[in-house]
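Entry 14. Ran structure prediction on the chain below.
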Amino acid sequence: MIVQNATPILLLALLAITFLQSGYDKIKDWKGNVEWLKGHFSGTIFGNQVPLALFIILVMEIVSGVFSVAGIIELLTKTESTIGFYGAILSCKTLLMLLFGQRIAKDYDGARTIVIYFVPAILAVYLLG
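Output, structure tokens:
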């Protein structure tokens, strides 16, 4: 089963590592993240909403990461992964939210970086769908 599902397992591992580490970083340094993002989004529609927006992103990242881990476990024990599919979809939604924020902040290099993560996420949706 591992060999047959190697590609989706590796893609879900990438998503799990990406989002769980990012969520952990947000929790560990909440204050620092809020302060940095307030400057990043000053003068935008999110300027006064940074803590709420960061909390929403945090929840999305943790749920995406947990679903991705659960999807790996499901792939290792079954022939399909509905949970992994939903994890990949949530990952795409999370990345689109991050992309939107970067575009609003006019951080085009940051937006470009998010697209790099979006490609494997959408591939996971395709393979698991």
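Residues 31 and 51 are 9 Å apart (CA to CA). Will compare against last week's run tomorrow.
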